[in-house]
Amino acid sequence: MFHISDSKDIKQGKVTDVYFDRTVRILKEKNLDKRVVAEVRAHHLPPGYEWAVLSGVDEILYLLEGLRVEVQCMPEGTIFHSFEPVLNIEGSYSEFAKYETPLLGLLCQASGVATRAARCKKASAGKPIYHFGARRMHPGITPMIDRASFIGGCDGVAVGRSAQMLKEEPVGTIPHALVLLVGDTVKATRLFHEVIEPKVRRVALIDTLGDEKFEALRIAEDLGDDLFAIRLDTPPSRRGDFLELLKEVRWELDLRGFRKVKLFISGGMDEEKIRLLAP
């Protein structure tokens, strides 16, 4: 079994902290329920963060749908600051008390992902960035993570189901597995070119078997104008000065007339690394 909540359980308020259920029991038994206005805001943001991006609103509205409450909320993707209200709920407390736990969870995680994506996009100085992080998250929440990343500023996502829900085309390159199975970088890329539909851009992975510079030139000479970009996913143990490696590959490609071939960088990227590598 997968250790993930069923959507019906979340909607029915079963995924909540027990003290909310106990509070509602007390209020009803003692006839103490009141009409209230609940305000949601972030008391503080992570160190160095002056703003954040709101996400998870779509799920919040679905969570509260059908309840006898009034909801006011900032639009999805809005920039907000600490202590700034992002959501108000007005109604009898017992009507929505059990939803505080899932409501805050939905907002906090999605907004955290969207904010980090926005900071990475800002660091890229306008260059496209894509979310390839599904393998670091529980697959049950992959569409949510991808959606929040997209709202925050990522230009695409790799998981097909997530892209479908976003009404976008999934983006991706060639995995190391294909290169290892074929046994040669050029042959693997050539097979990709022969089998995969033309609308998918040809981005060759060049760090699996040989020196990045020489592999990049081999691929460029073989695919010519069909090659859109080369991808460097070089592991940290072999990177050394990664920026210098990128400059060297770029220089070699330009020298031989492959100026249109772009460099696609992946592997442990964060906003600091993006800022360094995408001046």
UniProtKB/TrEMBL annotation:
Keywords: Glycosyltransferase, Ligase, Phosphoprotein, Pyridine nucleotide biosynthesis, Transferase. Its EC number is 6.3.4.21. It holds the Pfam family QRPTase_N. Pathway: Cofactor biosynthesis; NAD(+) biosynthesis; nicotinate D-ribonucleotide from nicotinate: step 1/1. Transmembrane segments: none annotated. GO terms for molecular function: nicotinate phosphoribosyltransferase activity; nicotinate-nucleotide diphosphorylase (carboxylating) activity. InterPro entries: Aldolase_TIM, NAPRTase-like, Nic_PRibTrfase-Fam, Nicotinate_pribotase-like_C, Quinolinate_PRibosylTase_N_sf, Quinolinate_PRibosylTrfase_C, Quinolinate_PRibosylTrfase_N. Residues 113-277 form the Quinolinate phosphoribosyl transferase C-terminal domain. It is an enzyme of class 6 (ligase). It catalyses: 5-phospho-alpha-D-ribose 1-diphosphate + nicotinate + ATP + H2O = nicotinate beta-D-ribonucleotide + ADP + phosphate + diphosphate. GO terms for biological process: NAD+ biosynthetic process. Residues 17-111 form the Quinolinate phosphoribosyl transferase N-terminal domain. This is nicotinate phosphoribosyltransferase.
